[in-house]
Specification:
InterPro entries: ExoRNase_PH_dom1, ExoRNase_PH_dom2, ExoRNase_PH_dom2_sf, KH_dom, KH_dom_type_1, KH_dom_type_1_sf, NA-bd_OB-fold, PNPase. Its cofactor is Mg(2+). Its EC number is 2.7.7.8. One of its GO terms (biological process) is mRNA catabolic process. The protein is an alpha+beta fold. The chain has 5 domains: about 190 residues, 2-Layer Sandwich (Ribosomal Protein S5, domain 2); about 80 residues, Arc Repressor Mutant, subunit A (Orthogonal Bundle); about 210 residues, GHMP Kinase, N-terminal domain (Ribosomal Protein S5, domain 2, 2-Layer Sandwich), CATH 3.30.230.70; about 60 residues, 2-Layer Sandwich (Ribosomal Protein S8, Chain: A, domain 1); about 70 residues, OB fold (Dihydrolipoamide Acetyltransferase, E2P). About 35% of the residues lie in helices and about 30% in strands. It is built from 15 helices and 27 strands. The chain has an 8-stranded antiparallel beta sheet, sandwiched between helices. A 5-stranded mixed beta sheet has the order 9-10-11-15-14. The protein is elongated. The protein starts with a strand and ends in an 8-residue tail after the last strand.
């Protein structure tokens, strides 16, 4: 159990025996929020926590990403890490505590683990970096950076930034890593106090005979395929599969007592893992020794780029396709009214989202067949990364009060679909006429590291991600970085290498940005004709009730009369949505009339709306009525109100008084009447 201020997080680790046939590490990280932690009752129908909200899913990923590379590759046991926020202090977000706690609990569980590992958040207020800022400080900060590290180096980075220069971001990561070292030392002290020794990280058990046989039989063939730089991804995969099948048949033709055949027969997964290991070794060796990638590109070269905007017709507000190599993403933008904002029911103080970025990764994008399901953690995480990259350039709510939803559909995937989503979504926003402050592009950086020999790769494709050591996504504008996400497959990187990767990403980002701007270089001057038109203005918060009326009757009447949609915020911001500008202006005229203060002695030209035995009601402003008492209808005595005025008559009146209940009393005595 970790405590910081008033925030408390309980983290547990459970290990079960390996299941037969599993050839990967089945690690499951869960983060649970309990609403009692903030003294609240869940807002769901059952008043009980149910499906985890998006922020909880992102915290699960935040725990998983630095943990997974620290377990040995040969471990096949089921491992579940569960973090539960049990008390919340707004001065300390619980997610980084969950990450650090997952390391401590794993060590206490005596699992083979290359820890300790810890995480901190870094904010930037003015010119000062701060460690673990509060929720409110994060809102004001120019940087929201989470750094996780081990004694061996940085193992994970997640960040959003307001167009910060590369050197500031590098300095922030270094600042956070120094704070991580203190938490690592504290964990080591606890282990020493409890007399818990680290579990030896034994190397993965390999069958040397199988590896040696594969190297002798197919190394040259694999090298030849990897050196055919003009091959497509599908052709390369097919040729590697043919080589694999050929050598597998060769093993079957060996004698039954041959050690290679016996080893493969006793472990059905051994041949596949050994073939993958050989392919990985040869691909990495080609990059390290020749500086050539499988598609022939230089290490710092971006794949060919193509893009188009406005490709979807009819009611789609904005659309764009962005393609880089074989990765292709279709992004769309939809503009909505304030009532379309997503209501949040989690522990974060913010209660709504007005910018939504959703990412879909269908099976056809990678040539697979599988059932379609609701978005998984990967889809949620990639959508959140693209969302974070674009938030810094969105217009202010006061200037552009729309709720914005962007959806990125991956049509074809060969690496870096999240950064393609950033690029396509930027173009879709501009196509919809959203006045973003600057276009955003992104690139994914990779790494090949063998001992002290290091190569950084720009714009990695699928095989380089699959067989490489790092996936470092960098997004930003011409001015600076807006989002970072770094995942590792090794136990840590020194700051010098991380700095080199960030600096190498800059020219790639700018090149991609220039290619995007050849298609669309600025937001369209007009919104889509199918997007709603919003009219915004402010009223005094104390007059909100007047506009809404008893039981909402007044505002409902206005919307029905003008065929508009009206939203009023707690601060008095009124937003009127309509496809008809004249109707929106009419709705505003009515609200202006309801909220305008009337003073004694003012003159109005109004219409009689009702007649009762003691007087007549006159609408002096849209939605605002006053009453003329029968005694104020004429200089002489009036027997019946109908003798003087009737419903529909237009009369000029003067405000005689406003009583202590706010009722407006009118008179026409002494008031000249037109006509």
């Amino acid at each position: 159990m970790l405590e910081c201020g008033g925030t408390t997080v309980l983290v547990t680790v459970t290990r079960s025996a390996a299941r037969e046939g599993v050839d990967f590490l089945p690690l499951l990280c869960d983060y649970e929020e309990r609403m009692y932690a903030a003294g609240r009752i869940p807002g769901s129908y059952q008043r009980r926590e149910g499906r985890p909200p998006e922020r909880a899913i992102l915290t699960c990923r935040l725990m998983d990403r630095p943990l997974r590379p620290l377990f040995p590759h040969w471990l096949r046991d089921d491992i579940q890490v569960v973090a539960t926020c049990q008390a919340l202090d707004e001065r300390m977000p619980p997610d980084v505590l969950a990450v650090t706690g997952s390391s401590m609990a794993t060590l206490l569980a005596r699992l083979p683990f290359a820890g300790p590992m810890a995480a901190v958040r870094v904010g930037l207020l003015g010119d000062d970096f701060i460690i673990n800022p509060s929720f409110r400080e994060i809102e004001r900060s120019d940087l929201d950076l989470v750094v996780a590290g081990t004694p061996h180096g940085v193992v994970m980075v997640e960040a959003g930034a307001r167009q910060l220069p590369e050197h500031d971001v590098i300095e922030a990561i270094d600042f956070g890593y120094e704070a991580v070292q203190d938490l690592i030392k504290h964990q080591q002290a606890i282990l020493t106090e409890l007399c818990i020794a680290p579990v030896p990280m034994e190397p993965e058990a390999n069958n040397e005979a199988v590896l040696a046989y594969l190297e002798s039989q197919c190394s040259d063939s694999i090298r030849a395929v990897l050196a055919e730089f003009n091959l497509s991804k599908a052709d390369r995969d097919n040729k590697l599969s043919v080589i694999k099948s050929h050598v597998a048949n060769g093993i079957l033709n060996l004698g039954e007592d041959h050690p290679v055949r016996m080893a493969v027969a006793s472990n059905i997964k051994l041949f596949g893992t050994s073939y993958k290991a050989l392919t990985k070794k040869l691909m990495r060796g080609q990059i390290l020794t020749e500086g050539k990638r499988v598609d022939g590109r230089a290490l710092d070269q971006v794949r060919p780029i193509a893009s188009a905007v406005g490709i979807l017709p009819r009611k789609v507000h904005g659309s764009a396709v962005f393609q880089r190599g074989l990765t292709q993403v279709l992004s769309t933008t939809t503009l909505g009214t304030p009532s379309d904002a997503q209501e949040l029911d989690d522990l974060n103080p913010s209660n709504e989202k007005t910018y939504l970025h959703h990412y879909n990764f269908p099976p056809f994008s990678v040539g697979e067949t599988r059932p379609l399901r609701s978005p998984g953690r990967r889809e949620v995480g990639h959508g959140a990364l693209a969302e974070r990259a674009l938030i810094p350039v969105l217009p202010n709510k006061e200037d552009f009060p729309y709720v914005i939803r962007v959806v990125s559909e991956v049509l074809s995937s060969n690496g870096s679909t999240s950064m393609a989503s950033v690029c396509g979504s930027t173009m879709a926003l501009m196509d919809a006429g959203v006045p973003i402050k600057a276009p955003v592009s992104g690139a994914a950086m990779g790494l090949i590291k063998e001992g002290s020999d290091v190569r950084i790769l720009t714009d990695i494709q699928g095989i380089e991600d699959f067989l490489g050591d790092m996936d470092f996504k960098v997004a930003g504008t011409e001015k600076g970085i807006t989002a970072l996400q770094m995942d590792m497959k090794i136990t840590g990187l020194p700051m010098a290498t991380i700095g080199d990767a960030i600096r190498q990403a800059q020219p790639a980002r700018l090149h991609i940005l220039a290619e995007m701007q050849k298609t669309i270089d600025k937001p369209r001057e007009d919104l889509s004709p199918h997007a709603p038109r919003l009219l915004t203005f402010r009223i005094s918060p104390e007059l909100i009730g007047t506009v809404i009326g008893p039981g909402g009757r007044t505002i409902k009447g206005i919307t029905e009369r003008t065929n508009t949609k009206i939203d009023i915020g707690d601060e008095g911001l009124v937003t009127i949505a309509s496809h008809d500008g004249a109707a929106a202006r009419e709705a505003r005229r009515i609200i202006d009339g309801l909220t305008r203060k009337v003073h004694e002695g003012e003159m109005f030209r109004g219409t009689v709306t009702r007649v009762i035995p003691i007087g007549a009601f006159v609408e002096i402003l849209p939605g605002k009525e006053g009453m003329i008492h029968i005694s104020q209808l004429s200089e002489t005595r009036v027997e019946k109100v109908d003798d003087i005025v009737k419903v529909g008559d237009s009369v000029t009146v003067r405000v005689r008084e406003i009583d202590n209940r706010g009722r407006i009393n009118l008179t026409i005595r002494g008031v000249p009447q037109e006509g």
